[in-house]
Design brief:
The complex is a heterodimer of chains A (112) and B (116). Chain A is mainly β. Chain A has strands at residues 5-7, 10-14, 19-24, 32-37, 44-49, 55-58, 61-65, 71-76, 85-91, 101-102, 106-111. Chain A has a single domain (5-111), classed as Immunoglobulin-like (Sandwich), CATH 2.60.40.10. Chain A has no helices and eleven strands. Classes of the chains: A mainly beta (112), B mainly beta (116).
């Protein structure tokens, strides 16, 4: 069992559709991060959420941290082919920033 | 300039060989990491170094040994390579924020290791 469970594992949608991906845990995190990884490259940080119930927006991407700080979601509005990639959530148990744990990721494909 | 660089980008080698992957960061960060990403894209931490001291050492075979000559470099040496070592290895760095939360992890481009 992984510390951070992501769903769905794969998602294929048409351009213009909306989608939500989830990151869940039975553990409480002081903060969670979302990264996006494109083929052949390393992950790149999108956002860090630190307060329970917090909502952060990054253009068409909306990130939410659960009230209990055990889960997070990423919502994309009007998806575009450029959004295609692997979305990873990450957190550090016991607030030890040197011990980052990643979820298995959601692989998103947006078709034109 | 590339913030986190790794060499080589591709590495194809025979089972039983010894190989090294080099990593350098020019961000002035005090913590560096090695991650392994398998064929299913699962990214797992292997080692974490802070100021040249090993902080995290996940359950990896002792054939893997990180070496940090200075704060800007963290190399990964692998002895007696096995087929199951084939994966993409990512180096990363971050600034330790202590109990102030998670710092941003900056990843290198990855080293694609194939053991034949």
């Amino acid at each position: 069992t992984q510390l951070l469970e992501q769903s769905p594992q794969f998602l294929s949608i048409q351009e213009g559709e909306n989608l939500t991906v989830y990151c869940n845990s039975s553990s409480v995190f002081s903060s969670l991060q979302w990264y996006r990884q494109e083929p052949g490259e390393g992950p790149v940080l999108l956002v860090t959420v630190v307060t329970g119930g917090e909502v952060k927006k990054l253009k068409r991407l909306t990130f939410q941290f659960g009230d209990a700080r055990k889960d997070s979601s990423l919502h994309i509005t009007a998806a575009q082919p450029g959004d295609t990639g692997l979305y990873l959530c990450a957190g550090a148990p016991h607030n030890n920033g040197n011990d980052m744990r990643f979820g298995a990721g959601t692989r998103l494909t947006v078709k034109p | 300039d590339t913030a986190v660089s790794q060499t080589p980008k591709y590495l194809v080698t025979q089972m039983g060989n010894d190989k090294s992957i080099k990593c350098e960061q020019n961000l002035g960060h005090d913590t560096m990491y090695w991650y392994k990403q398998d064929s299913k894209k699962f990214l797992k931490i292997m080692f974490s170094y802070n100021n040249k001291e090993l902080i995290i050492n996940e359950t990896v075979p002792n054939r893997f040994s990180p070496k940090s000559p200075d704060k800007a470099h963290l190399n990964l040496h692998i002895n007696s390579l096995e087929l199951g070592d084939s994966a993409v290895y990512f180096c990363a760095s971050s600034q330790d924020l202590g109990n102030r939360g998670l710092g941003t992890q900056y990843f290198g481009p990855g080293t694609r290791l194939l053991v034949l």
